Amino acid sequence: MNRHAWTERLRLVALLAICLGAASFRAAAGEPAREFLEALRRNGYYDEAVAYLQEQRAGGRAPEAFRETIDYELGLTLLESSATLAAPERHERLRAAEERLAAFLEEHPQHPLAPAAHSAVADVLVARGRLQVEEAGQSAAGSAERRERLRTARETFLQAEKTLAAIGQRTEESLKKLGFVDPRDLKRCQARDQIRRQHLQARLAGIWAHDEIARTYEAGSPEFRETLEETSRRFAELHEKQGDQLVGLYARLGEASCYRRLGEPRKAFAIFEGLLVWPDEPEAMRTMKTLATVQALETALLPGVHKYKEALDISRKWL
């Protein structure tokens, strides 16, 4: 597995955490139309999902609550489907996804899904940055063209990071406006907890966006190390002050991934091993443990680590 593969996989898990805020709204809706759409996407029928959404916009019989989110759902569908396409088509699909998300935010800036839509815009930017890094790899090493493409990718990742920072700032301001919440006021407590989750999820995703910047530098270069060191520091800070166990554990997982790429595999292995003692529920926790398990096994076999017995014990428990 190449040196960027785990970065991408781990960030995808972070994005699942970001979606938790949207999931509560979507699950509460309980609409057959939304469930049908999600089933299409889950099974990879993206063209059919787009056609279904366009049909509903043109006069379908879905409830109004669903119809007003069509641009948002189109943006998500186009973003997800872009990963299945070749570079030229991927650029176009990402552009279309960003347009639909922007249209949703312009028309419904206060919608419950607005924070998720802002996060999805950041996801589009990260996907575009990765594509730019991929295209830079096709240019000759050390060439001006390669450097320019990597610089462009770096700016794209920075834009994604700024987008997520803005979400964090908005949620922080919302918490201040909410002020003291009486524990007996369940509705306000739920609203406060939702905003807190969105805030932490934006911070976590922002760190992953910063991590992506390392892709724009040569492995082992001073800039590469500086980026990963800053990323690991921010992951560690979030883990220590997160206020949400699941977010903190994913931050710890990201920190260990940085250490591994920085040439500190023993330190990384100790963290991966420590993450495996947590329970298997909920599903997001189980996913975290699966990622930690695979990374622990790969790290155990690296030169200078040789944790063969530990790796065997981990694999047996996993099985």
Strand content: under 5%
Sheet with the most strands? none
**Overall SS class:** mainly alpha
CA gyration radius, whole angstroms:
21 Å
What oligomerization state is this entry in? single chain
Question: Can you walk through the features of this model?
Answer:
There is one protein chain. The relative contact order is 0.09. With 319 residues, this protein is an all-alpha fold. The protein is globular, with a radius of gyration of 21 Å. The chain starts with a helix and ends with a helix. The protein has helices at 5-29, 32-42, 46-57, 64-67, 70-82, 87-107, 114-136, 144-178, 186-212, 222-241, 245-261, 265-275, 283-300, 308-318. Mean pLDDT is 88; it is low at 16-30.
